[in-house]
Automatic annotation (TrEMBL):
PANTHER family in UniProt: FUMARYLACETOACETATE HYDROLASE DOMAIN-CONTAINING PROTEIN 2A, FUMARYLACETOACETATE HYDROLASE DOMAIN-CONTAINING PROTEIN 2A-RELATED
SUPFAM superfamilies assigned: FAH
Name of the protein: Fumarylacetoacetate hydrolase family protein
Chain coiled-coil ranges: none
Highest taxon of the lineage: Bacteria
A molecular function GO annotation: hydrolase activity
Recorded family membership: Belongs to the FAH family.
Domain Fumarylacetoacetase-like C-terminal intervals: 77-283
UniProt keyword annotations, A-Z: Hydrolase, Metal-binding
Organism: Acidithiobacillus sulfurivorans
Amino acid sequence: MKLSKISSNSTVELALWRGRDLLSLRNIAPRLTLMDLLGASASLRNDLEQRLNRAHAEDLLDPTQLNFLPPLPENCKILCAGLNYQSHATEVSAPPAEYPNFFIRYEDTLVGHGQALRIPSNSQELDYEGELAVVIGKTCFGPMNDAQALDCVSGYTIFNDASVRDFQFRASQWTLGKNFPATGGCGPVMVSADELPMGAKGLALHTLIDGTVMQTGNTADLIFNVASLIRALAAVTPLRCGDLIITGTPAGVGFTRNPPRFLRAGEHCEIRIEGIGSLINPVTAN
């Protein structure tokens, strides 16, 4: 299953992809919510597949005429792992980690595919970070093994954890630099876990600015894999349907370059993840 959350004429709706076709669920399954889809059972998916087989031409959508929203429910938790690619930890000379390093990002800092990332008026250091995001499909809390942890995953999407570096590095905690409005991107699709390798392992990731590759990585390079991140968080806080775990970024971010390379107004930042697709955001200045 490959789903998108879209808006057209101020109406928010859900849509599913079948190959290159995007089908509105407005008539096919009008009562289904995003939470229903994220936590969908096998029987619900089978029923939905049958309904899609009966779709009409009027259910087809033109992606070029839509606004893509982050494929998230409202009021979800967004929990981010920092320094979780070995290549990135090496480039910043971080000591070996015994435990994942988490910080919080807020839903209202995000924009969808095609929407603009905004450079804050009080900083010129907006940096790109291409990342894989894990979408939780059911509540998990307490001790569990890897298989149980991965059973809680609904799917995966693409995330740009763009960071305002001068604010991020003012203190040991990174919250300020991660939560300016419209500084993070998410989407445009959520791909269900059964369509990707177990734990989304071995997926190529690239970040590009105006077509020039800035980051090249692979999820096999994660220091703490998807199951480990879920287990670490679920030991502390209940993870619920729709919550996101952001898994970290590989080497090549802008602040580590000489000279530093931050995002500039008029550019386009693209993140590609194998098996999921591309998240593209233009960059503007406030």
